Amino acid sequence: MQLKVDALRALHPEPPQPGGRPTRHKTPAPSLRARVTAAVGPRLDPLITGLTPLAHLAAPYARKMRPLYPRPGRVGWRRWLPSWRQSLGAVLTSVGLSSLLLVVAYAATDIPDNLNTYATQQDNVFFWSDGTPMARTGWVQRQAMPLKDIPEDVRWAVLAAENASFYSDPGISVSGIGRALWRTVGEGDTQGGSTITQQYVKNVYLNQNRSVSRKFTEAMISLKLDNKMSKDKILEGYLNTSWFGRGTYGMQRAAQAYYGKDVSDLNVSEAAFLASLLKGAGLYDPVLSKANHDRAVERWSWILDRMVDLGKLSPTERAKYRTFPEPLKQSRTYDTGKQSDYLVELATQYAKKTAHISDKEFDLGGYQIYTTFDRKRETELTDAVARARKDVRKSDPDRAKTTHYGATSVSADGRILAVYGGPDHRTQGYNESNATTVSAGSAFLPFVYAAALEHGVTKTRDGATAPVTPESVYNGDDNVPVTTPEGPYWDRSGKVVAARNDGKKSWGQISLRTALAQSVNTPFMQLGMDTGLANVRKTAEAAGLLPSSFGRQVPELSMGSATPSALRMASGYATFAAGGRHTEPYSVSRITRNGSGIALVRPKPTRAVSAETAGSVTEALRDAFRGAHPGDAPAAADVAGKSGTTQDDTAAWYVGTNKSVSTAVVVYRINLSKSLQPLPLKGVAGTPALPAGPSGGEETSPDVSYGIWSSAMSPLG
Questions:
Q1: Would you say 51 and 4 are in contact if contact means Cβ atoms under 8 Å apart?
Q2: What is the overall mean pLDDT for the chain?
Q3: Contact between 576 and 446 (Cβ < 8 Å)
Q4: 663, 569, 581: which is closest to 625 by C-alpha?
């Protein structure tokens, strides 16, 4: 700039002062500017040469535009009034500087990379196996939907209400910004005609501060976003992040909260009402007050008329919607609670593990988790346990306080169909269906039987392995010492280990199939030793029991010293119903996020035992069911199962299958305020019915575990 001025002075030297000689300028000492000019001047000579003619032409006009104050030749107040040339110059200078400022601001403004996390956070929705919503989790009720899944009528209801010129505007409204600034400065609020792009920017990138600087930043980002992102993407983001009241964000959640349906099922009348909420849900939710209702009806009608004016709704179609679409009084948001919390907990753990979703990603939400839980079976199982709890509270209120129930239903293909985890997850956080607290007792015998059929037995140390069949005979007397190839088995205290039967009954020589059907313990303790405890454990684990549930490898292992959960016992029996093929139990069949599928590792079936072995175990369990409960199912029914008791009376089980579904129920007592040590049941679980044997009659006292099982599996057959 200095070089330009020097050039102009060289062409137009200053005139001599009146009455004197031309002014002589003393040459100042070289300054930093002079030195820089000397260094770069030669490089700018061509530029100066090119600008010289322009400067020559502009000089007279520049002198005329130069303001002279007070104006010569004027008197009074007119001396201070600028000329038209000066006014024009001021206007042009202001416009130029403003334009320059806007250009610089636009260039300096970046679209933030980090979105407002709260504005984009969503909830996670869990569905029953039939696809209906079960529960949702998360602090924010929001579920993003792709624009293609939002009907065009719904989109235009919003556009008609908020920004009809959305597809043609540059992302901002100059008049709207002006009104907003005027209100911000003059009246203290920020109401104004923001475009949808501006509202989306405010929701996603900025905070809600009411300031001029925030409004200016919003406008700059909106301009840039409009150039960078497609209009459809901006509209999609806006529809998924806007507040609609009732704790909801986005059209999908709003549709569910106000009409109990998905956004894809809305009609244009319902969409017009939802669009009215964008002006202020607290003022337009009609259930809050009569004034709100009147405002909502008026704006709803205006939006529909506006759509007609825009050519997005025909007059004929408009005529169909004369009655205001009243929303639900209460929103159906499917909160978790009681049993559903246990289901959500299981499904969440499985989803994170198998879909490799981090805790942080899951908490950001947006996932749709389609579970394997059967709503009808879950209701029946929960109701059955509730009745049992009620009966115990009446008959023995003191012990009822420490009585616990765990139950699970699993299909033969591994799907977890129903779970009873406790009375209420909010008061009892741990899941009783998945607890490994009490031993399996005699409910474990089928795994010993399967191991023997699969691996055979060895009677001598170096002898050959002999095959075992269902008709193989063992001693069924009570208190029979357990033997090894070297002789009796001694425990660490120096006592000979002996097996005991329920009721101390002796059955004499008995086939293995009959022993299992009659729940005779003593043959199986010896059978486990002959088969090899390692083989017994291996078979049980292959069928579905976890290694962590097993303790020391001693003869008591065959008597059910392992502590599997109800879930794992149901899974183990399901393996026999599936012909010997085991599928790890799973609770989630499909996961999507905002409509896109998430890769999910599904368990594959593995061979646990041969089909022949599985069939033999199932036949013995059918005999056990028919013998204990002869009138509870048709003779041809595909029902199999048995009870399970422990010698210390700390657990009562019933595990069995009906067709292709396996259910395990366990009743036990623990005083959680004192310890995790199981307590004797002392009759709170009833006494399992035992078939008549050689020593006499049949016990028929109520069996609580079986009562829950049969109700949950009804109808049997």
A1: yes
A2: 81
A3: yes
A4: 663
Determine contact, residues 101/110, Cβ cutoff 8 Å: no
590's CB contacts (< 8 A; 6+ apart) are 370, 597, 600
Distance (Å, whole) CA 652 – CA 643: 7
Using an 8 Å Cβ cutoff, are 373 and 418 in contact? yes
Q: Where does residue 91 rank: exposed (0-12), middle (13-18), buried (19+ CB within 10 A)?
A: exposed
* 3-class secondary structure per residue, 231-252: HHHHHHHHHHHCEEECCEEHHH
Taking only the tens place, the pLDDT of each residue in 378-432 is 999 999 999 999 998 998 888 888 999 999 999 999 999 999 998 887 777 788 8
Q: What secondary structure letter does DSSP report for 481?
A: E
Q: Is the separation of the CB atoms in 380 and 672 below 8 Å?
A: no
Q: How far apart are CA 451 and CA 81, in angstroms?
A: 110
| pLDDT for residue 503 | 80
Upstream peptide bond of 70 is cis (omega within 30 degrees of 0): yes
Where residue 374 falls among pLDDT bands split at 50, 70, 90?
very high
Verify cis geometry, omega within 30 degrees of 0, for the bond prior to 112.
no
67-112 pLDDT, tens digit each: 666 666 666 666 667 666 666 666 666 666 555 555 544 454 454 4
- What would the mean pLDDT of 592-600 be, rounded to a whole number? 87
Query: Using an 8 Å Cβ cutoff, are 482 and 672 in contact?
Result: no
CA-CA-CA-CA torsion for 390, 396, 402, 404, nearest 10 degrees?
-40
> d(Cα 578, Cα 580) in Å, to the nearest integer?
6
Q: Facing residues of 127 across strands?
A: 133, 370
